[in-house]
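Feature request disguised as a bug: please show the residue count (413) next to MFS transporter in the output. Example input:
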Amino acid sequence: MTTSTPPSASTGRRRFPALQAWRVLTGAQLALLVGGLLINIGTFAVYPYLAVLLRERLGIGIAQVGVILGAATLVQFASAPFTAAFAERIGLKRCLVLATCLYTLGALMYLGAMDEPALMVVALFVSCGAGALYSPAYRAYLVQSATAEQRPQVVSAGNAASNLGIALGPVAGALFLREPALLFTLSTALYSALMAGHFLLRPERPPEGGQPAVEPFRRVLHGLARVPFAVTALTHYLYMQFYQYLSVYADGRLATALYGTIMMGYSLGLVVVQPLAARWVGQTRHSVAMAIGFSFMAVGMAAFATGCPAGVAAGAAAMSVGTGVLFLKNELEALALSQRSAAVTFGQQRLAVGVGALLSGVVGGTVYGLFEQAELLPGFWLAVAAQCVLLPPLVFVATRRLSGDKSMASTAV
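Example output, currently without the count:
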């Protein structure tokens, strides 16, 4: 007598391919997904409101606040290759525990900053250091036991948990914005519980074939997958212009509550898009995923130029699809082409994110200012949309020729 899968179950898997992401996860990976979700809720309950808190507590101008936030973000991204190499040495679980200890310390410092406002700046840098430690180890722990076929589902599940935290965090923080002491007390309690939870995680499995040779810190960029690195930097250069400047553009055009709802919808869209598209993204060539992803980004940027609520909402929806495809494919391509461990590869990719964000701040901010002075702000979004069309093929072809990377590691459609 033979057994078979019940028709209802197999039909459900065909109709809902995103559910396969959860079927390949171990208990330890599921626990870490919950941890990643809560870490981002705690982080983004505070981070979006730091500009307000720093300005009120320190009594400094917005320009000085911008310098502090920019420096902290740069430290977080620029240090990621080094913190990833550190995780490679001490082990992923130990690195995750250390990161949650720093998150807890940062929350305690924020709480102490109620009486010593200057301590808030120190707390910010400690929290950014915790993020630099946590992110590469979190992603590496999730994929360390996954097969090449399972990687798209596992990576998309990790990103979905993170993006859900990003969407829910600002909502939680808004509830306590006028009571920062209570907010930081709750953050301290949350991170303390997460520190204990991460300590109970199962240690990662030792690599097959013995422990590979570990490169010295001075070679943290050795074995870099150059095409995914360059495309990731470009993706975030374009994406951050949406993330950084749309709020300024929407001011006076959209109600604050409506804009917040749209941005939450964007983050929740990522939570849905990546698991749904994971299998397809994993099987698609990088160049094809780029063409589709950047096309949706171009449509989204052009829609922002309308300045009306429907246009901004449609643009955010298109951005969810475009960035969802690109964020996932860039990470999968980096894992496929990199010569380093998963932790170091994710650290290198975080550096690419930082490079893109820096370019967005320098180049995008200058261009936005020029269009603002000319009173032609809708033209800024059309200019960014044009870049979404023109820059990707140039960067892709130029980087492939310079690096010799072969994207044939990805399976063709």
